[in-house]
Design a protein that fits this description.
four-stranded parallel beta sheet, alpha/beta, 29% helix, 12 helices, six-stranded mixed beta sheet, single chain
């Protein structure tokens, strides 16, 4: 008996859930291959905890071989899909080209950092979509506070301990909230010049923080941020980024060495090369998650424009909740296409949102019930523990230790600035330049070190034609 070949591209929320559910539904009657650049599923909502020293990196990663025993893992980055020949081409971590044939294909490649045509941003900002970026930011924040403490003048000291986060959505709000607590803890051990304190700014062109969420959640988050000392500036954007700071659209120049870019995400550029109809960069699918004209191809998660049955004419937003549930639907429909069960359209029910603001503070509206304070904090962390497909005990233990013990503030220096460019189609993979002697010999190279720039002429990336894809400035969400 010939076994069906199922290939899943991407192990984010949608891809992991698809693989996990399919491995159960197929019952060994199909060969399932999961193509992913890393051997782990990353629980993205807790990435701010990694960047600010609350959780150790492995706590938010779940082993793919360890939790998907009936799924074959192919390490690599997909760089082409031939829907006529039913083949996927990819490049493995050592640069070797590979090819996978399929009878059923699930495209769940996810999303990458969203770029805007702002001068200097690609050179001087860093995104927040992968583990390398979180590890880099953790080192960088620690380094800047240490350099600020030893700065020869007050102006340099202030610039080094000023941190600018652009984008007041879910990620930006959590990063600013946790970051403020982290730097306050750092300066208690590493005092700055008299009168200088860490400064965090959260910028967004929208009229309020969390513009995509309920207004009550936004009001709670705004109140906590401002009470903690974060400067929230709505209706404000960056006009230009330089090595010395950022110029705002109101003409003010902010001296800083840290620019975190959290303005949103865009679909993985792989889908743009498929030659299929797109909706704002996302691959159009029908309610059963099929790509029109190709009943053997399914798409889900951030890369797919899935019709929203509750809002006719609209598409489901790019959130982890939707990706996770779309993965389950895709798995059932793939199985149904092979004769196991009946296919189903994608339906969803809004379960509410949670925003972890650090410490005991959070904002949440589970099932539409608005919560704030310690109760919201308990609900938020309980939700994350329930949603994680592994490592729950380790995560809970780290949270307990963080509440009882001071955080460890050391630089590991494992990820350099050039390894995490903002303009990349693979934020989950660190880019290691083949020759970057300056960054090797300068242990204190900052995010704006010209020798550690993402445009270092000596830098070489692995063979991946998607690595330097630039977003069309006319296709902005």
């Amino acid at each position: 008996m010939i076994r069906s070949r199922i290939v899943i591209i991407g192990a984010g929320f949608a891809g992991y859930r698809t693989a996990h559910t399919l491995s159960r539904l197929a019952r060994g009657k199909a060969d399932i291959t999961l193509l992913n650049p890393t051997d782990y599923f990353l629980y993205l909502p807790l990435l701010p905890h990694v960047a600010t020293g609350v959780l150790e990196p492995r706590r938010v990663t779940v082993s793919l071989p360890g939790t998907l025993p009936r799924v074959r893992l192919a390490l690599g980055e997909a760089d082409g899909v031939d829907m006529e020949q039913h083949k996927v081409t990819y490049t493995d971590p050592e640069g070797t080209r590979g090819e996978l044939s399929y009878d059923r294909l699930v495209l769940s490649v996810g999303s990458v950092n969203k770029l805007l045509p702002v001068p200097g941003v690609a050179e001087h900002a860093h995104g927040f979509r992968g583990m390398p970026e979180a590890l880099y930011l953790r080192d960088h924040i620690t380094r800047q506070v240490e350099l600020a403490a030893a700065a020869p003048d007050a102006e340099t000291c202030r610039a080094r301990c000023t941190f600018v986060v652009v984008g007041a959505g879910y990620t930006g709000v959590e990063l600013a909230a946790h970051g403020r607590l982290f730097t306050d803890a750092l300066v208690r051990k590493q005092p700055l010049r008299h009168g200088v304190r860490p400064r965090w700014l959260l910028l967004d062109i929208a009229g309020r923080v969390l513009p995509e969420l309920d207004e009550r959640l936004a009001a709670t988050a705004d109140r906590v941020l401002r009470g903690r000392g974060v400067e929230v500036r709505t209706g404000t954007s960056v006009k230009e980024a330089t090595s010395e700071g950022v110029l705002l659209d109101d003409g003010e120049f902010i001296g800083t060495r840290t620019l975190a870019w959290c303005v949103g995400v865009r679909p993985d550029p792989l889908v743009a090369g498929l030659g299929r109809p797109l909706e704002r960069g996302r691959l159009r699918v029908d309610p059963w998650l099929n790509v029109p004209g190709h009943p053997e191809v399914f798409a889900c998660g951030d890369a797919a424009a899935v019709p929203d049955r509750h809002h006719p004419g609209q598409y489901t937003p790019m959130t982890a909740q939707h990706a996770w549930r779309q993965g389950a639907t895709a798995a059932h429909n793939v199985a149904a296409s092979l004769g196991h069960g009946t296919r189903r359209p994608y339906r969803h029910r809004d379960l509410g949102f949670t925003v972890d603001l650090g410490g005991a503070k959070a904002a949440a509206n589970p099932l539409g019930v608005p919560l704030s304070g310690p109760l919201a904090g308990a609900v938020t962390r309980g939700y994350h523990l329930a949603a994680m497909p592994g490592n729950r005990v380790r995560v809970a233990a780290d949270w307990l230790l963080d509440a009882l013990l001071p955080r460890q503030a050391v630089q590991l220096g494992l990820v350099r600035s050039a390894s995490v460019p903002l303009d990349t189609a693979s934020p989950e993979v660190a880019r290691f330049p083949a020759a970057a002697p300056h960054s090797v010999h300068d242990p204190h190279a900052s995010v704006h070190d010209p020798h550690a720039s993402v445009h270092d002429p000596h830098a070489q990336e692995p063979p991946n034609h998607r690595a330097n894809h630039r977003e069309d400035p006319h296709d902005q969400q």
